[in-house]
Amino acid sequence: MEDRIDMSKQFSKKHQFIMDALFKAEPNHFFRKEFFLTVIQVNRLSSHAEIIIMAIKSQNILHERERRHRDLMLAV
Question: Treating both helix axes as pointing N-terminal to C-terminal, what angle do 2-35 and 59-75 enclose, rounded to 10 degrees?
């Protein structure tokens, strides 16, 4: 019986690892494609998620009367 409990804990850890990786990969892919950003750091805390976005050129985001900036804020 203990083997089954250990197996379920291992599966749970593996499942959590995969979910964390997907949680970090999806915003990374979206922001790179949509806003031409290079570095996105996602920190998942117990009560919320913190996303830090760093762009190569801020003008890529802030042109067209800050339309892209508003789009970025809405996406986050």
Answer: 140
Domain topology for 2-75: GMP Synthetase; Chain A, domain 3 (3.30.300)
What is the spatial distance between Cα 62 and Cα 74, in angstroms, rounded to a whole number? 14
Domain residue extents for the chain: 2-75
Cβ atoms of 35 and 76 within 8 Å: the answer is no
Q: Give exposure, 42-59, as e/b (b: 16+ Cβ within 10 Å).
A: beeeeeeeeeebebeeee
Does the pLDDT at position 73 exceed 80?
Answer: no
pTM exceeds 0.90:
no
Q: Is the CB of residue 31 less than 8 Å from the CB of residue 51?
A: no
